[in-house]
Amino acid sequence: MRYITTPIYYVNDVPHLGHAYTTIIGDTIARFYRLQGHETKFLTGTDEHGQKIEQAAKERKFTPKEYTDKISAEFKKLWDELKINYDIYARTTDEKHIAFVQAMFLKMWQKGDIYKDQYEGHYCISCESFFTKSQLINENCCPDCGKITTLLKEESYFFRLSNYQDKILKWYEEKDPILPKNKKNELINFIQNGLKDLSITRTSFDWGIKLPKEINDDKHIIYVWLDALFIYVSSLGSEKEKFWPAHIHLVGKDILRFHAIYWPAFLMSVDLPLPKFIGAHGWWTKEGEKMSKSKGNVIKPKEIADTYGIEAFRYFLLREVPFGNDGDFSENMLINRINAELSNEFGNLLNRIIGMSNKYNDGKISQNGILNLYKNELDEVMQYLKLAIDFLENLQCNRYLEEIFKALNVANLAISKYEPWNLIKENKQEQANALIGLCANILAKASILLSPVLPDSCQKVAKALDFEISKSNYEKLIINNELLDFMASPCEALFPKIEKINLESKQEIKKEEKAKIKIDDFAKLEIKVAKVIDCQNIEGSEKLLKFQLEFDNKEIRQVLSGIAKFYKAKDLIGKQVCVLSNLKKAKIFGHESDGMILSAKSGDKLVLISPEQIVENGSLIS
User: Is 458 flagged in the annotation as binding?
Assistant: First the structure.
């Protein structure tokens, strides 16, 4: 069993690049474990209680629940748009979570780990954290975020965190649960300075979970971190025994202390097992500068994905920075990764294999002769792939991808070294076919391991070479180092090379595109009704349909449209469609297209625009 969690993200604002980074790591790890055959749960969600949320809602003239519903929906929508394959989307406002937290609080209380006293100290609303005077910077400022703290004096319930100091240090020593490993020393230093008992309730605001009825004290709200951390357990419901403890909690470095000190203490208090790993990643800057709204340099994940593609975005974030280090987002570096690695090393290798196999052997690719002729190359590849798996198990996603691309490089170098075109000229057909078989098997092995990062692209590779990305093929190709035969078929380019597309420029273009136009501008468009007399799928493309359209005077035109995922070709024959008919001719996927069929985007679907009633072919829309 494998249970992977991201933090439940605080809903004081909309999701940003750092949120996307954590979630993409979690999604990749979960997909990898499913590929290996592990029964896996992947959780993400939102943290919705606390004074900061109450204030943010009030500023925007919402109730706290209205506000949290709105922001939580934006997080969920983004993960769906980025094709994050989560199993659980958790919210701390769910009733089952509220009841679970109250039950855990009561258990701690009954055990003697919670007591009532007076609290006086400095509180950071932004971090939802308490600090002593000696911990502050610049007189009254929070040591974590730098914002001014508030001096509080109020009645509070305390958790006996000090009782667990030695137990937590022992856990670090025996289980070594912190990733990357250099983060452990920071935690040890913090603990050895002495853990003070933790104030775990507040009375100065209302937006949070009330104490259990058995304690009979309705003035108090449970501390947001005690509330939030238990979401990892409460969300499992009836499957708690099956999936707990978590295999990996993924967090940002700013909340490592809460997850690696407070959380294990809470779990020990209620007699629950501790997670196997807690992995803390760094922050992202943009071209060397911290992102902020005031600077206007905040990167929106959806805009990057829309501009460069979801999978290129995923690949860049995981490949660019060692896990635990801070990363710097640069458009130029993203484009370099796409062109040099995804396009040249990965996509172009598939194109070369398809081209050579069709030219030399009617698309048939055999494993015969590989072990006799190219065993050294195959052994080198397997060394890289085994290292890749080890790196991913330790959350070193960049090294994971680096090793896989070393394997792909072996295939590309083998083609340059042995020159199959010359082998054919020299009548060395066996060597040439074995070389293509070697490269196809390397690509298949690499694609299986790349599929957690590039799921759609790797499925295209699998379809083009006629094999499956599955647990059984993971075992055959990766664990047992077996070889397969393939049958190649055409495939559209996986990652076409791109020129720089500046995000800010694109935003400006979008604004211009949405600007109002004059009637003279509309008059330049010629939109006509045409009848579909034939429609066919285009071989090698999942998106394109090729239409033969009849206009007025029996004029026939060929037009391509990317709606194959939404319509069956045969069902469209005989229908009337609306066509932008004075568009310049274009060549798409090797086929001429003379016009554009109009469709409307509805959610994730494209819907063809058709006249309400049958009209004469060639009728002008005005």
Answer: no
Question: Residue 290's CB: how many other CB atoms inside 10 A?
Answer: 11
Give the per-residue pLDDT at 504. 55
Q: Look at phi and psi of residue 590 and say left if phi exceeds 0, alpha if psi is from -120 to 50, else beta.
A: left
CATH 2.40.50.140 fits 516-621, yes or no: yes
Judged by DSSP in three states, 349 sits in helix
DSSP type of residue 321: S
E strand residue ranges, 193-270:
198-199, 201-202, 221-222, 248-252
Report angle CA 420, 425, 428 to the nearest 5 degrees. 65
Nearest-angstrom CA–CA distance, 222 and 217: 11
Rounded-to-integer distance, Cα 375 and Cα 620, Å: 65
- 124 known member of a binding site: yes
- The reply to whether 439 sits in an annotated binding site is no
CATH 1.10.730.10: which residues of the chain? 331-487
The superfamily CATH assigns to domain 331-487 is Isoleucyl-tRNA Synthetase; Domain 1 (1.10.730.10)
Please state the φ and ψ torsions of residue 411, each to the nearest 5 degrees.
Answer: -65, -45
- Residue 97, pLDDT score: 97
Written as six digits, the tokens of 612 are: 């309400």
Specify the higher pLDDT residue, 293 or 114: 114
Cα 421 from Cα 430, distance rounded (Å): 12
DSSP codes of every residue in 479-545: IS-----EE------SS-------HHHHHHHHHHHTS---HHHHHT--EEEEEEEEEEEPTT-SS-E
What is the distance between the alpha carbons of residues 444 and 188, in angstroms, rounded to a whole number? 44
pLDDT at residue 413 is higher than 80: yes
> How many angstroms from the chain centroid is the CA of residue 59?
31
Give the Cα separation of 320 and 336 in Å (integer). Answer: 11
Cβ pair 448, 474 in contact under 8 A: yes
Element containing residue 159 per DSSP (H, E):
strand 150-159
Q: Where in the chain is the domain with CATH 2.40.50.140?
A: 516-621
Whether 222 shows a pLDDT value over 80: the answer reads yes
What are the CA-CA distances from residue 597 to residues 424, 522, 526, 581, 582 (Å)? 45, 17, 12, 9, 12
State the pLDDT at residue 322. 93
Using alpha carbons only, how large is the chain's radius of gyration in Å? 29
Give the DSSP per-residue string, 52-88. HHHHHHHHTT--HHHHHHHHHHHHHHHHHHTT---SE
Output the CA angle 39-454-248, nearest 5 degrees: 40
The verdict on whether residue 127 carries a ligand-binding annotation is yes
Q: At what angle do helices 310-320 and 301-308 cross, to 10 degrees?
A: 110
CATH topology of domain 2-281: Rossmann fold (3.40.50)
Classify 200 as helix, strand or coil: coil
Residues 354, 355, 357, 362, CA torsion sign: positive
Tell me what the mean pLDDT of segment 576-582 comes to.
Answer: 93
Sole residue written with tokens 């009337």 = 576
Domain with CATH 3.40.50.620 in the chain: 2-281
Per the document, the length of the chain is 622
- For 226, the 3-state DSSP assignment is helix
The pair of structure tokens assigned to 396 is 């070193």
Q: What are the pLDDT digits (tens) for 30-63?
A: 999 999 999 999 999 999 998 888 888 888 888 9
Which conformational region is residue 324 in: left (phi greater than 0), alpha (psi within -120 to 50 degrees), or beta? left
How many Cβ atoms from other residues are within 10 Å of residue 215's Cβ? 17
Q: Is 599 helix (H, G, I), strand (E, B) or coil?
A: strand
